[in-house]
Amino acid sequence: MNVLFLTHSFPRAQGDAPGSFILRLAVALRDRGVQVRVVAPSAAGLASVEEMHGITVERFRYAPRRYEKLAYTGTMAQDVASSWSARLALIGFLGSDFVASVRARRSFEPDVIHAHWWFPSGVIGSWLSRMSHRPLLTTLHGTDVRLVRSAAISRPLFRHVLRHSAAVTTVSSWLSNEVRTLVPSVKPTVAPMPADTSRYSPGGRRESSRLLFVGRFTQQKGLEHLLRALSQMKRPAVIDVVGNGGDSERYRAMAQALCVADRVAWHGQLRSDQLAGLYRAATALVVPSIDEGLGLVAVEALLCETPVVAFRSGGLTDVIQDGRTGILVSPGDSAALAAALDAVIAEPDHARTLGAAGRIYALSNFAPESAAQRYSDIYKHVLDSRTT
């Protein structure tokens, strides 16, 4: 079976974080006899065609190099909404993506087209599916569903993509419910993306009062809630902050205003091998996100036997079992978050128990082999449905 992946986010080099779960899925599918080819946008220094872990990736140019800034930032929607140059780049993106996808379809002859995120890849996939008479599977990851909720103008196009998809998957049950609310006629299948079970594992010395945050500096990721919680904690703690993007200076100024700046270490974006060491050393990972699609960073922490303290929101409830693999508190409640972090630091034996249970749960639910089996079955079901 041949499957063509369409995506606007995919690793640009070894250890690159954007879209890394898509590469893991492609590799795991190949090991099950499903051949995958990927169409993804270009970026500085990338070849037009390359092999990554045995997966062929075809990259497309969509604007003069200095304007090719839509992909790999995690802020495509915001950029397009605020910049005319980004809007013009988006027109070039859609056209170039479609041309590259048509070319890949002709040379690769896929049985199934698999679009990651409904926009832009799902839109391109719907055009390609109708033209080539190949079934389209669309996977929703979270940011694309938030786009529909926040921008009503996008809803007709969203419904168009889903109704022209032979199957729709979401990476969490929360996202599935969101989709059912927006388009009641669509019944998504919950099928999470795989975590890197080989890279993230326990080991080394764990700190007694060192917390970790991993995420982009956006309001949705909730770093401001964590900084407030840090200022309200009764036990002394320091926090490693990994990430970039957004208004980083605002968060640094906020740490100063809350008198916690000397307890925050700003690391910027790190490679996955560097991040693994921080997971292993952390007392707990803190995920103060609101409406997170799934929260693979929480899965990665659990694989390292690091307990997770998070808001009871979005897909995180699929990852964290409150009281068993971590602690969940009410969304936006910084006082409750502070109390939960104090409890994790005060009870190291309980924290170790949470972490050990978390690794078992993560291995059983988010291993690449499990994800590949689920998606292989979905592809077969889509193809079988077309012949009956």
Q: Can you describe what's shown?
A:
With 388 residues, this protein is of the alpha/beta class. The chain is globular. It folds into two domains: 2-194 and 367-387, Glycogen Phosphorylase B (Rossmann fold), CATH 3.40.50; 210-366, Rossmann fold (3-Layer(aba) Sandwich). α1 packs across α15. The mean pLDDT is 93. The longest helix has 25 residues, at 84-108. The protein contains 15 helices and 14 strands. The chain has an eight-stranded mixed beta sheet, sandwiched between helices. It is 46% helix and 17% strand.
CATH architecture of the largest domain: 3-Layer(aba) Sandwich
Helix content: 40-55%
Figure out the total of helices: 15
Query: Strand portion, in percent?
Result: 15-25%
| Number of spatially distinct domains | 2
Number of strands: 14
Work out the radius of gyration: 21 Å
Query: Tell me, what is the CATH class of the largest domain?
Result: Alpha Beta
**CATH topology label of the largest domain:** Rossmann fold
Let me know the largest β-sheet: 8 strands, mixed
Q: In sequence order, what are the helices and strands, one letter per element?
A: EHEEEHHEHEHHEHEEHEHEHEHEHEHHH
Report the mean per-residue pLDDT as an integer.
Answer: 93
> Can you list the strand order of the major beta sheet?
3-4-2-1-5-6-7-8
Structural class: alpha/beta
Distance between the termini: 18 Å
Oligomeric assembly: single chain
Low-confidence stretches: none
* CATH superfamily descriptor of the largest domain: Glycogen Phosphorylase B
How would you sum up the global shape?
globular
